[in-house]
């Protein structure tokens, strides 16, 4: 097959959508298919171009056998509403126009949100008269009301109508968890139109035998008990709870707990300033690190934190970092309610806390710190559960079978 994939994010960006898309596409290439990706110049989450890239009208490179075409977009950081919308809309226009000049694909895949990436794929499928699979990793209108000052009203109702108009297009709608499927069905998308293909872990890359000693030495961690948060540091993540927990622990004599906050995002600078103002020596901000360094970082950690603000939107989320951390045999402290908590409890791979509750976070850290055998058992349970249910190779084959079946039906 010739597969054309529209995605707003792609490596060297290291967020979850970039990783999901690249991991799927490179496995499809290995299976003998031709994959072309249309994306933008890498700049997330700060809106600053990565070294070696320019924001040209179009530029092409090959990554892991994938032909990657990057189109011009209006660059904007992942904060604020107007500038981000301009970024999204500019991608929709330039990506669609570029798609008119590539070899005609057998099937188009477009991942949303952002919603307008999905519209670029839909328009391309109409003009190129080819099959379309849409992918929904979040609820766009609900995200806006949760993360911005925009409230429910005429604008949001209009955006929601556009969203569900799009989701009913194409041959299949792929989503990443059962919670999203429930919301899509409630919004009028036929259940038979939806396929769940979750995120997962590359088990060769995230090897629990990885030696964490070099990373501990690099960051001067010594014998500290290390709790790591790795990912976007944004409005959705509510990481002020880490500062509150660190403040409680630092009052205790002999505290050896260190919190590592790894990544970039709209909230990083504010959190770093606040940590400095409070004099918190146990919270360290490492910034953005390459994806290849992530296994070493997790290996150097004693436990890992996954956290989101408490909001109805996040009850459907299955953060992909859960699978990587669990496969590295690290106990997880999970501050997310809903489907993610169900997975952690079913796997027995961590402790669930109330989002935003620093006291519960401290209690979870203390328990894992003082009960190493319990922590080790949780780590092993997580490894077994992820290996059985969230292997990226298996998920990529499932996705490929879906595409093959759609193409097999003819145009």
Give a short summary of the structure:
This protein has 15 helices and 14 strands. With 411 residues, it is an alpha/beta fold.
Overall description:
The protein is α/β, with parallel strands linked by helices and 411 residues long. The chain has 2 domains: 2-200 and 391-408, Glycogen Phosphorylase B (Rossmann fold), CATH 3.40.50.2000; 213-389, 3-Layer(aba) Sandwich (Rossmann fold), CATH 3.40.50. Helices cover 43% and strands 18% of the residues. It has 15 helices and 14 strands. The chain has helices spanning 16-30, 82-99, 115-128, 140-147, 154-167, 178-186, 213-218, 240-250, 268-278, 294-299, 321-327, 339-347, 358-370, 372-389, 392-408, and strands at 2-6, 34-40, 58-63, 66-71, 107-112, 131-136, 172-175, 194-196, 225-230, 257-262, 283-287, 303-307, 332-335, 350-352. The strands form 2 sheets. An 8-stranded mixed sheet has the order 3-4-2-1-5-6-7-8. Strands 11-10-9-12-13-14 form a 6-stranded parallel sheet, with helices on both faces. Helix 8 links the parallel strand 9 and strand 10. Helix 1 packs across helix 15, helix 2 runs parallel beside helix 3 (115-128) and helix 11 (321-327) packs across helix 14. The protein is globular and about 70 Å long. The model has no long low-confidence stretch (mean pLDDT 94).
Outline the biggest β-sheet: 8 strands, mixed
CATH topological fold name of the largest domain: Rossmann fold
Number of domains: 2
Radius of gyration: 21 Å
CATH superfamily of the largest domain: Glycogen Phosphorylase B
User: Strand fraction band?
Assistant: 15-25%
The percent range for helix content is: 40-55%
Tell me the CATH architecture of the largest domain: 3-Layer(aba) Sandwich
CATH class of the largest domain: Alpha Beta
Task: Give the uncertain stretches in residue-range form.
Answer: none
Strand neighbour order, sheet with most strands:
3-4-2-1-5-6-7-8
Number of strands: 14
What is the SS-derived class? alpha/beta
Shape: globular
H and E order: EHEEEHEHEHHEHEHEHEHEHEHEHEHHH
If you average the pLDDT, what whole number results? 94
Contiguous helical run count? 15
End-to-end span in angstroms?
13 Å
């Amino acid at each position: 097959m010739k597969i054309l994939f529209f995605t707003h994010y792609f490596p060297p960006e290291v967020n979850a959508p970039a990783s999901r898309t690249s991991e799927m596409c490179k496995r499809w290439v290995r299976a003998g298919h031709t994959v072309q990706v249309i994306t933008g110049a890498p700049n997330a989450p700060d809106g600053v171009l990565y070294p070696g890239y320019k924001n040209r009208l179009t530029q092409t490179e090959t990554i892991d056998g994938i032909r990657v075409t990057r189109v011009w977009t209006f660059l904007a950081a992942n904060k604020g509403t107007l500038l981000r919308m301009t970024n999204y809309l500019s991608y929709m226009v330039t990506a669609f126009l570029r798609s008119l000049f590539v070899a005609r694909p057998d099937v188009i895949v477009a991942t949303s949100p952002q919603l307008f990436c999905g519209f670029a794929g839909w328009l391309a499928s109409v003009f190129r008269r080819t099959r379309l699979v849409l992918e929904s990793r979040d609820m766009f209108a609900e995200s806006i009301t949760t993360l911005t000052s925009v409230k429910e009203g005429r604008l949001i109702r209009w955006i929601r109508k556009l969203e569900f108009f799009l989701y009913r297009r194409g041959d299949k709608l792929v989503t990443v968890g059962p919670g999203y499927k429930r919301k899509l069905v409630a919004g009028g998308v036929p259940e038979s139109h939806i396929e769940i293909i979750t995120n997962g872990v590359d088990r060769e890359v995230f090897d629990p035998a990885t030696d964490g000693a070099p990373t501990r030495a690099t960051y001067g961690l010594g014998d500290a008990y290390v709790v790591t948060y790795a990912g976007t540091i944004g409005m959705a993540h509510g990481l002020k709870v880490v500062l509150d927990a660190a403040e409680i622990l630092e009052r205790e004599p002999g505290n050896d707990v260190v919190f590592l906050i790894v990544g970039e995002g709209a909230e990083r600078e504010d959190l770093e300033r606040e940590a400095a103002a409070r004099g918190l020596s146990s919270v360290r901000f490492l910034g953005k690190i390459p994806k290849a360094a992530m296994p070493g970082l997790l290996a150097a950690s004693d436990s890992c934190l996954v956290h989101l603000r408490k909001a109805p939107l996040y009850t459907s989320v299955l953060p992909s970092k859960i699978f990587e951390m669990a496969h590295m045999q690290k106990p997880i402290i999970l501050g997310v309610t809903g489907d993610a908590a169900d997975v952690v409890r079913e796997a027995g791979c961590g402790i669930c806390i109330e989002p935003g509750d620093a006291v519960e976070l401290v209690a979870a850290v203390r328990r894992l710190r003082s009960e190493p055998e319990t922590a080790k058992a949780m780590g092993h349970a997580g490894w077994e559960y992820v290996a059985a249910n969230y292997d990226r190779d298996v998920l990529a084959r499932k996705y490929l079978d879906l595409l093959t079946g759609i193409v097999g039906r003819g145009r």
